[in-house]
Queue: 2 jobs
Job 1
Amino acid sequence: MEDSLESLILHGCRLAEILEQNLPILADQPDILVNSCEEIVSAFKNVKERVLSEGHTGVQELHGSEVGGVIREHATMASLDPRVITGVGGAYTRRVEDVVPESSEMKRMSLHDQRLGMGLELMFGEIGGGGGDVMGTGSSGGTGGEISLDFSIASSSQRQGRKNEIDKVVKRVAAPQMGSDTPPEDGFTWKKYGQKEILGRAYPRSYYICAQQKLHSCPAKKQVQRLDHDPFIFEVTYRNSHTCRVTSAATVQIPPSTTAPPPPPVSPFPTSTIATAQWLSMNMFHHVGGVPDSSAGMLKAGSGGGNSNDFQPVAEMADAMFNSGSSSSNSMDLIFSSLDEHKWDSTEEKKDQ
DNA sequence: GAGATTTGACCAGA
DNA sequence: TCTGGTCAAATCTC
């Protein structure tokens, strides 16, 4: 079963490779180009349908040595072993890991591309656990290829925070620029009122209040914390909803209740790396969890009920990639590029061994 | 000079 | 008592 699935994937990859190799020739032959692309899309759609119909669960591995890549997916429904997807030569790693104490109900999948200055993370509820919901949404920003997914934590355990943890949203966003100390613009104007070293964290936490607080008595606050293991990603915690509703930009998301994402581009082929990344983000947004919540403009990323849906993000990620219509392996490289300086290579893979 | 940022001190919850 | 969150004076920037 896996072999046939693998062969389907390899078939799609081969088609993509062929297209890539002949791209210079086909550049002025749109008809052939379109047909070739449709063939590739069709191949990966077949993969997607096969994956979904067979309801992949448990441990599974897909090897693609011919394209120099290995897609590996480890998971057990009971214990949420780390799920790792390694790519071309193992140069990039995507994994689901604990980012919070084991008692927490949050798990995440994170993707990060330092060259693009792009980070992408998925969170979903505890597998096999009960209780809280993790509400998710996605967005793509215009600065530095920022990609982010927002998740409102509504679990009971999360509410037992130090102070008022209700109406708290944790968001992870990539730094708008390499080495930037400031988090990406989120559409609101903030006033920094404090910074503090946090025990056990490598980087200080910054505290912000809404700049409209005085004018509108807006209670919104946010905290910005760099991740220890990936300083190119900020963990932004929003507290309290904005009551001012006055934004610094016309088209902004309004955390914590983010608005619906923009429709995907008409063309299936983004014209730049950033567009590709953003486009992937939007695809991810549309697919992760699947069921839009029109009332809040958010998506349910996981029910937290420990059912088979918990396994969806991996399949959906494949869906997003395979359905993207990306015709060449370059696009994969762009999104999950193999970078020598990629810190995950050294740090994360050691853990895996 | 006004507004933003920094930083040490203080407060409150666990 | 420890630690995260907030306050407010000092400092910086425009």
Job 2
Amino acid sequence: MFQIQTLQPTYLPPPFHHQRHRIHAASRPSSTTLAVPLSTSNKNPSIQSLCKKGQLKQAIYLLTHEENPIQHTYELLIRSCAQQKNLSDAFTVHRHLIDNGFDEDPFLATKLIDMYSELDSIQHARKVFDEITNKTIYVWNAIFRSLSLSGYGEEVLSLYRKMNRIGMPSDRFTYTYALKACVVSESRISLLCHGKEIHAHILRHGYEGHVHVMTTLVDMYAKFGCVENASFVFSSMPVKNLVSWSAMIACFSKNGRPFEALELFREMMLESGDMLPNSVTMVSVLQACAAVSALEQGKLIHGYILRNGLDNILPVMSALVTMYARCGDLDLGRNVFNQMEKRDIVSWNSLISSYGIHGLGSEALAVFQEMVQQGMSPSPISFVSVLGACSHSGLVDEGKLIFDSMVKEHGIHPTVEHYACMVDLLGRANRLDEAAKLIADMRDEPGPKVWGALLGSCRIHCNVELAERASRRLFELEPRNAGNYVLLADIYAEAKMWDEVKRVKKLLEARGLQKVSGCSWIEVRRKIYSLKSTDELNPQIEQIHALLVNLSKEMMEKGYVPQTKVVLYDLDAEEKQRIVLGHSEKLAVAFGLINCSKGETIRITKNLRLCEDCHSFTKFISKFANREILVRDINRFHHFKDGECSCRDYW
DNA sequence: ATAGGGTTAG
């Protein structure tokens, strides 16, 4: 897997004109240095100044005429080669250094390792490391750093074990690099157990108070999704700084726990007045606001960003665009995008997917075209965004054209994720056979995302046969994802195959899994209220239920028919009606009607896909109560107005 | 003697 290559002969520098004796730097007679004091002091500054000016070739020319190059000269040249990204010059300097007896200089070895690493030539870095006998801790750490940056996590860990075996003590840097190595590995096996082992070493050697080491540890657990471990380490830290807090906030944000991210941010602002959040902190906080649709909180953060001059930082601005769009305010997101002085691919992708989740497929396509016209090369994520947008708006032919253009026009090979988008696009449009054929024709192994997209489409169009095929694969690939079992049970329930429903439910129980319960939430005056169908905590719950019962009665007179096929129990019609009326989204609608002022759009977010009954119920309400209602489900937005929904019943 | 580290957008 990891191979060390020797120097490529084509890159080898030509032989030197003046072959010199190999003299060890330390054993060089001092008289030699004294004999040419002028030449040394004249030439060294000039090599130095040439390096500074970026005139590497001239500097190397001077080097070949240099009588007594010193360590510092090589240091400057090495740095210059790295900056100029010039590998063949790097070889020249390296060779020269060896010929002058500096090949056992550990200081220069670390510099060489760093240089080769920056030149994307990890094999040569490794060769320097292997060949130096005097491996100081700096040399070890340098190769760890380089290997980690190139993604060779396992190689780092194997060297780390070797280092421990030979009794070379680690220092604080070793620990941070070794921890990083656990999360950068390209192989699919989890190196979490190694991370835990290093955690133990850190404690054993008394680094539990070291803020850098401990923050890296928090981040290591965060990257593995071990939120509890990360949180435990974080709270055990005697000293925390802004980076530690930011790492923990990012941990909550990235692992689907946005409320805790926001809570920790609040705590940070309260506890430590001297710590001012920076752009990195802001990005994680904005993601959390986006996840929970905390529009008002997001606006406050936006204000902070403007006041503190963070509004020229691209990651912050892209996160703002996404935050506004995901909080339901596409226009504010567009404004932020328009005001950006510079845009990178991520900014464009943010805008494209913003249009996508609002169901504005043609607009997303237009932005994509505009971006390409401006000379910006689309990234793989651009295609995920634009294909997703096509999917939500049913733009099947447009999506297929884009998919074909990936390789043909942009040289980007579709990944499993892109196939998942296409399966979703075709499947939603009830072209399930085409979707199945696309999967069959895939060169890579279709992963859970692809089969999941197919199963989701089978749910929409109630295709039992294909659903069974998809779920069989899914149960193998991700046996612990409860959502797949529920989808299959839904499909059986709709087909009234009650025995099969029972069988799937038993399977779910046998594996110790639970259906994710529906939850909806709504922001009222900067506070977020979440509602669950089983929730008796809301003080207004009786008022809410009463309102819903009345509304449904009145609406049924006007033609609303409860869609009870989503209920997974074989119950009588009335019981089923009672169950669907308790869905969390309807509770949130009622809560919004009670607590939001007239004319204000009611904005609701929920953790699952909108069920058909809630969809038709909310359409009715929007007309009946003359209210605009904006609902974000797990996939997209539904904008209800005058009895219609922006998704045109295609979701 | 010298040198090096942790959090970030779709």
